Structure formats: C-alpha cells, structure tokens
Amino acid sequence: MAENKPYITQKQENGSIQISEEVIVSIATVAISETEGVSGFAVRTGAELVDMLNKKSRGKGIKVTITEDDRLFVTCNIIVNYGTAVVNVAKAVQENVASSVESMTGLNVEEVTVNVCGISVEQK
User: Tens digits of per-residue pLDDT, 5-14?
Assistant: First the structure.
C-alpha cells in the first residue's frame, strides 16, 4: 500500500482490515448519485480547487477526512435540480452517504457536510 494514502484500520481477531479513502469516496459518489434531486457534483473554487487537483480521489466534489483516531468526516459539493427542496435534498444526501458508508464498511461516519453549490435548470 502507498504510504501517502489515508487508510482506516480495523483490528480483527486474525489480523486487520484496511479501507482506503478512495473506497469511501467511491461509495459516497454512488450514494449521492442515487439521491433524488441531485443533478451532479460541483468543484468549488480557490484553495479547495487546488487541494482537489492535487488529490485524484477528490475530483468529484467529495472530500473524505480521516483523523488520526480514525474518525471519518465526509464533505460533498453538489448541484440540485431546480424545483426541489434544497434542504430536503441535502438531508437525504447526508442520510444516504452515512448509511451507505456505514453498511458497506462497518465504519462510523461522524459527520456528512453537504455544500449546495448550485441549481441545475433543465432546458426543455
């Protein structure tokens, strides 16, 4: 394993399991994409953009932070569909991401922060 990639390690009776940040980003990406009212992902500007460009797994507007004590935080930047209740969509994203990550990895998600960065208006 590459030493510069963050991993969460779970100790087991017969060894340990390491789950990479990229796995968590992939799970969160699918969970967000499947949430009704989400149009897509947004890349924020400024320092966040520079940070995302330097990390391959963060190019979709999702940032995963793993603390030294293996606490897990997810931040996502989304665009919602025009006409949907923004707060309801954001809450659904929080629930879907936490539920998906926890059920697929067994990890506890401390917090899911949702930044609604735009509205998508579909042209007919």
Answer: 678 888 888 9
Q: What is the DSSP string of 40-81?
A: EE----THHHHHHHT-GGGTTSEEEEE-TT--EEEEEEEEEE
Look at residue 46 in the predicted model and tell me its pLDDT. Answer: 47
Residue 30: CB atoms within 10 A of its CB come to 13
CA angle 50, 110, 108 (to 5 degrees): 115
The rounded distance, in Å, linking the Cα atoms of 116 and 124 is: 23
Q: What is the pTM of this model?
A: 0.81
Beta strands in 82-121 (DSSP E): 109-120
